[in-house]
Specification:
alpha+beta, four-stranded antiparallel β-sheet, 8 strands, 33% helix, extended, DUF2726 domain-containing protein, UCP028063_topo_Znf, DUF2726
Length: 242
């Protein structure tokens, strides 16, 4: 009889847990929440650019992605309630692709927009014009970049410094990373290195290397500078390998 009573109590507890879990997955109306997790915060183009951006700023600033304009801009005081509501609504659903902040104080230093082909559409152009004007009025520097397959770190640095007063330490030279890959060596061609593509795996800097051993010995490739932590590479003249 005692065991039967215990079994009944355990069953009741389990039923209560199941019911509570079902309720927690529903909204106030009793309907299930209609949400699913997105695969990734950034698009492949944004992810690749982020790798270059992080190297361009040299760890001197923090980089945040997909930041609401409402978290970057505030509506000034002294305007009516209706005008304030309209102003807030215009920035609530807009985001900056990337934001640079001071590493210590988190002061907002610069907003960055990466423009892909969709920015050629009339509606996107209107949105871009509004964002530029809003940032200009608020005194927030805004740097724009056209999305493309490759970037040079120096160009990214110079573009940011043209709009924002920031101090950046010199970018590391490719030869500083030569010892990171035991099976490949850097090519002496420095001009090609200035146009290095980004790593297809991590979006970081790639180095022009010559394979020293194995079946592909003697061949050149763009190898990730973070090897062996990242083994992404791009054979010269071929598609990226992951």
């Amino acid at each position: 009889m005692t065991w039967l009573l215990i079994a009944v109590v355990v069953l009741a507890v389990l039923m209560a847990v199941i019911i509570a879990a079902g309720k927690s997955a529903k909204g106030a109306s009793g309907q299930p929440f209609p949400y699913i997790k997105k695969d990734c915060l950034l698009t492949p183009a944004e992810r690749s650019f982020l790798g270059v951006l992080e190297q361009a700023i040299g760890g001197q600033y923090r980089v945040y992605a997909q930041v609401r304009l409402a978290d970057l801009l505030a509506v000034r005081t002294g305007i009516g309630r209706s005008a304030r509501t309209i102003a807030l609504n215009r920035i609530n659903r807009k985001h900056a692709d990337f934001v640079l902040c001071d590493k210590e104080t988190l002061e907002i230093v610069c907003a960055i927009e990466l423009d892909d082909a969709s920015h050629q559409q009339a509606r996107r152009k209107e949105r871009d014009t509004f964002v530029e004007e809003a940032c200009r009025a608020a005194g927030l520097p805004l740097a724009r970049f056209v999305a493309k397959a490759t970037y040079t770190i120096q160009d990214v640095r110079e573009s940011i410094q043209q709009v924002a007063v920031i101090k950046l330490e010199p970018a590391p030279k490719p030869n500083d990373m030569e010892s990171q890959n035991p099976t490949a060596q850097l090519s002496p061609a420095t001009d090609s290195q200035d146009k290095a593509p980004v790593c297809p795996k991590c979006g970081g800097l790639t180095l022009l290397r010559t394979v020293k051993s194995g079946a592909h010995a003697g061949k050149q490739l763009w190898g990730c500078s973070s090897f062996p932590a990242c083994k992404g590479y791009i054979p010269l003249g071929k598609q990226a390998n992951r």
